[in-house]
Design a protein that fits this description.
- The chain has a two-stranded parallel sheet.
- Helix 1 runs antiparallel to helix 3.
- It is built from 7 helices and 2 strands.
- By secondary structure, the chain is mostly helical.
- About 70% of the residues lie in helices and about 0% in strands.
Length: about 200
């Protein structure tokens, strides 16, 4: 069972990699790509983080090795980020201009992989309960990303999402930053709580 789940995970990784490469190639046919812009979106970065973590997890399991505490913590954080991708996109950004123009790839990075990430975390319980004292770690990446976005918005004017546009006023932008921080903690807390479920028992 563990080997099968590892193969499923690696298949999900392959799908994600193909979707990102296809999006890059499709974008390149219509405009000159600025890599800092293309990979500056929370969606792209979160998907890449999760893909790397799940790829490592799959390889570790296939080799019959035990997942380290650091890898398990990274899985929890990456799962929380993928949930954020799915929620924020489908609640705030779906149907707006910009983003991933290639429809199937858009569905992969915003819907299919976030859903799979949640199911993988819930169903395949090859992880011990995550320590609540490590919950703060989930904030590191989103807050670093926000700081970089705010710096870019104030300097070269590029922002990945309209709610970070300085033209709307920094008061509103700050409100969104606080909302993202709170949503991250709440989402990560849910992931941490779910780590206590053991639906399909596997070795960690």
């Amino acid at each position: 069972m563990s080997k099968l789940i590892a193969v499923i995970r690696l298949a999900a990784v392959a799908l994600g990699v193909v979707a990102i490469i296809a999006t890059f190639a499709d974008t390149a046919t219509r405009a000159t790509i600025n890599p800092f812009n293309f990979f500056g979106f929370f969606t792209m970065q979160s998907n890449i983080i999760w893909l790397i973590v799940i790829a490592i997890t799959g390889i570790v399991v296939l080799r019959g090795k035990k997942q380290s505490g650091l890898l398990l913590l990274a899985r929890g954080c990456a799962t929380a980020y993928m949930i954020l991708v799915g929620v924020i996109y489908n609640v705030l950004l779906s149907g707006q201009e910009g983003g991933v123009a290639l429809e199937w790839a858009n569905n992969v990075v915003h819907i299919i992989l976030p859903i799979y990430a949640v199911l993988d975390w819930i169903l395949f319980a090859d992880r011990p309960p995550l320590a609540w004292k490590r919950l703060w770690v989930s904030l590191i990446y989103p807050m670093v990303w926000v700081v970089v976005v705010l710096i870019r918005g104030a300097t070269d004017g590029w922002v990945p999402y309209p709610f970070f546009n300085p033209a709307t006023g920094y008061g509103l932008v700050f409100a969104y930053v606080v909302a993202i921080a709170v949503l991250t903690v709440v989402t990560a807390a849910i992931v941490w709580a779910l780590s206590r479920l053991k639906l399909v028992k596997l070795k960690a």
